[in-house]
Amino acid sequence: MAEIVTAEELAREQEPRLITRHTFGVRVVHWWTTLTFLYLILSGFALGYPRMAWLLDVMGGGQSVRFVHPWVGVGFTVGLVFMFAMWLPSMRFHSVDRHWFRNLGEYVRTGHTDTDTDKFNGGQKAYYWFSVINGLVLLITGIPLWLPDLLPREWNLAARFSHHVFFLMAAGFLVVHVYLSTARFPGTFRSMTSGTVSRAWAAFHHPRWFRRVDAGREHEGAD
Amino acid sequence: MASLAATFGRGAMTNHWVDFKNTDVFLVLGANPAENHPCGWKWAFVARDTRKARIIHIDPRFTRTSATADKWVAIRAGTDTAFFGGMIKYILDNELYHDEYVKLHTNASFIVAEGFSFSDGLFSGYDEATRKYDTASWDYERETGPTSGDEGGPTQSEGFAMRDPTLEHPRSVFQLLKQHYARYTPEVVEEVTGIPRDQFLEIAQEFGATGVPEKVGNIVYAVGLTHHTQGSQMIRAAAIVQLLLGNMGRPGGGMNAERGHANIQGNTDNAQSWDILPGYLAIPKPGTTTIDEYIDTSALTQLDPDAVNYFGTNYRKFLVSLAKAWYGDAATASNEFAFDYFPKPDKNWSWMTFYDEALAGRLHGLFNSGMSSVNIGPDSNRVIRALSNLKWLVVMDPFPTASSEFWHGDGIDPASVDTEVFFLPTTHWIEKSGAFVNSGRWTQWKHAALPAEGELKDDVYILAQLLHRLRRLYQEEGGPFPDPIMDLTWPYSNPDNPPLEEVSKEINGVDLTTGRQLATFNDAKDDGTTSIGNWLYTGSWTEEGNQMDRRGTDDPTGLGFYHNWTWSWPANRRVMYNRASADAQGRPWDPTRPGITWNGTRWVGDVPDFTPDSSPQERKGAFIMTGEGVGRLFAPGSLMGDGPIPEHYEPVESPVQNVLSPTRHVPTTILYEGVAASFAEDDSEFPYVATTYRVTEHEHFVTQYVPYLVEAMPDFFIELPRELAAEKGINDLDQVRVLSKRGQVQGVALVTKRMRPLRLGNKVVYQVGIPVHWHPTGGHGKGNTAQMVNLLTPYVGDGTTVTPEFKAFLVNVESA
Amino acid sequence: MTTTDLGLTIRRQSATPASGTNIRRDHSTPALEISKLVDIDLCIGCKACEVACKEWNDLQVEETHLFSGYQSHPDLTPHTWDLMRFNEVELAGGALAWLIRKDSCLHCEEPGCLLACPAPGAVIQYENGIVDFNQDACIGCQYCVSGCPFDIPRFDTVTKKVYKCTLCIDRVSTGLEPACVKACPTGAIRFGTKEDMLAYGLEKVEKLKARGFSEAMLYDPVGVGGLHMMYVVPRGEILEQYGLPVDPTVTAPTSFPSLIGALRKVGATASWAGLLAAAVYFLKTGKRYPPPEEEAVAAAYEKAPHG
Known about the structure:
Chain A is mainly α.
């Protein structure tokens, strides 16, 4: 996750007027979820893909992975619940988000739209809801895989299939999420490390939120 | 077994297991071979697969045998005579009998003496006071002329029986049978047995159809027939069916008594019963002082000019040879071959009598070897009281038994039991080599599989020590009549623990002049020059070695005789009475299934049950062990103490009156002192018919010590019909109590469709099934006294053999 | 069967592509295949096979209680690989049938367990058709339990591994018959080449039909590619009452192993394609910096609703 920092960037970074975007608690929750999810993805690949089975050995042996994966899943779910609760107020869709989605093409091409984006843009909100629902599905479909005696065989098979499909989706969107928050938009990653962003970053990507923070109407980094 | 001897001459399964593959129709009754004899029963399946045989099973319960049978029908426990009586009537009425066979090989043509009669359920000669028959009137009409020429005067008692080859004579056995069984109509059969009339007729017709030369029917039975107060007569009735249908002596036919416990047949052959000597020689009666006298009362007399009467003729040779085996040089012609030494019991000394004597304080000590008094009952509470009244009890067994531990059983205060109990741990049969005689008379040598553990001793070691110590006591202290003990031969290389190989050779017999092992009992002598432990086994260990250890698998006839596989008594013969498998000219009834065939000079095929070179023109009778030379439809004289023709009576505990006669129960049943009060008179208090049995997972009581088998069939259970359970509010797997007038047991209810209510006239009777295996010391630690089924069974036995009535008694059932 | 070729090379292993090991045989001639056959017509339900199985495999004794009828255990367990199942059935017409079936691994030609197993080499299929578990490689996921159309594998909570009948591979590999076959007193459990067993089974079915069992059948379902423990079922019309699925499947295109296999391919392709796309996208578009602060702030305030 290292960032290549140019001199110019360094200058910006050193700018004293930073805005707190994510509090310490939020960052802990984020990274808790990140780490558990990374483990789940890797072990999931190891368990689900014979060609990745070598990962089982790397991760402590198949039997350990089989034992640990569901418990890490529980841990991930706990993080997800916190995430759901702490971001819920900011993740409600508004009319402005419709504008963002209409300009999705432009966003992809240029990395920007002229939407008056609040703290999170439409894509981020969508990713939030996707993650919550996906996490829920993975939890529900994971339980019968964890405890196969609970349900009839056919349900277990269906659960395994669904777990697989949703896992792939989660993994796919994770790539997008990581890419956008690191490589694509400089200044973003630090919001999850030090918790701060530059005024320019805030004003450029989240103008509506920036104005509120700037006006002191909202406590810095409410979440 | 007494009934088979009374009918055919020998008391054992007439055919053998492999021979089942030659059968067309099996009638299985009073037996559960799939459960209890699975290794033998497979041959019935072979018959079904290779010759489309049919299996008909009649049993109070739908068992594992029923599950594999073609047809099952429920019967009320203890009513088999009525069923067979109905069969006999059906066969006679519809002329299904094998006419030529019946005339040639049975006593159908024999004329019964005028004094014989039957009315109101009683045969002539009954004495109510002694509960015994005077059997003098159960005789044939005798020729009055000279019998066989020169010897003997024209006295009636020595004469041959009169015959009427047309079977028309009103007192011919054939007509008597017709007359006797006229009452056994399908309606009566239904009312007595609970078998619906149409189903009975279906079975009667199907099995009756084997009364032709090209078909063979096989009656398979076991203790489901013997364990009744009329057990011997049930078997007799079945045997009559087989004689009428011409199924005796033929491959695939026979009366096949399934014996259990690996070696019960060997037990019987070697006189484990009180009333016989080894080889089915009769036990001498008190007051008999000479062998002549003994032969006169015991050996069969020739009743027909064509009869071989092999047994009767050779009785003296066998007895003298036995005396030589037992008493050696002490048995000489001058002292009647030590005949004085032979036990001459003054009354019925069956094992049930032991406990009666113990209760009365007349018996002081008892050995249990290879059996357990308390477990095997009947009426275990009574047996426990009897054991408590002994001075000492010795139990020889690999494991503690309910008998060795009775003194601290449930509800017994050890302080109140004065009996001194000795437990002598013995080797199990797995730990020693020796012979097992299987049901089909195969005497098979087996080898020790495991070394004996710890300080276990062989039973024979303990018996040897007993002998040595008794002798020492006699030497040191003297005492009355020491001779039978002091003179007993003990010619073993290790007198302290005689090797069973040497005992086997001794049983086979030896020519005392040459020192050579005898090859056949035809070589037995009555002059004291042969020594034979059991004449039936002569040929089992010859100069060629241990014949019982042979494992040849060649079968040139393809009929499964396997003459080189082990050794089969008698004379390595595989199917007994096989002369009856051929017609008068010596031609097999069915050329595809010949037992033996006359080839012009000799009988070939199986080992002939006949003089091997006696041509058909000599017209000798096929049943060489009977005085008549034929099979007995009518068993004259004292052969069957409770009647020459089987008649149905109700078990001592029965829910109904006897439909067939006013005599409700077997009139000759021995009633021990005080037992009558322990029987339920009617079904008012104990309304359900109970029957006992075994399951395939267990072998009697011993496998309760085998963890895997306890796992396979873990709990003592009671099988109940659904309808009864519903009436009583009992659910499957509930704990239930079963009570009889004598005791109670508690187990898991198995509510099942496999037991059905029976309709007898306008009465519905429920039957309840209880297995025998569970007991206080077994169950892999889970055993308790309340699981012993024999707490329930009545203390009463068969009138002829005193075999207890384990299979039909009354109980009540309640939720526990 | 010759003792030189008992088909003991490995045909397939779980989670291992191209998992056969045999390079020796001329593959134009099919490998020798063995099979057990349970002739239910001859089975008396004595449980000798059940006990022999436990004894040979040294499986521990379990405390049991009667579970209805004569059945010793309610179900197979990690310590009971062979169980006689009993079912009392009233037939049309009122006659009674006691359906007794030896329940143990059927050694499918297309084993659902093997296809479902994610642990390489935990489930092995030999060329002779025996499907065996290698507990060393087993990760305890129990996918095989769900994957099995006959509900055979059992998970042990102590060792966290699954267990089932091995078709006595240790006996078969030395030329002996399986323990259950050896112990069967009536010859109901047979063992030989698949070919011989098929021949016996088909002939027996004809015999049963002649005896009035019009629906008698040889149970060797195509949905699992056939079995290496077949049944002769006298009353084919009530197959399910014996506890046998009428149409078990693992090989159909819609079946789970095929679906999951397809999904693996799609997933793997998509994953790599996604990563590639991200890389290409980055090369094409690079980073997007915010404008200088004043400009960005001004733009942000420009967007503010006026009024």
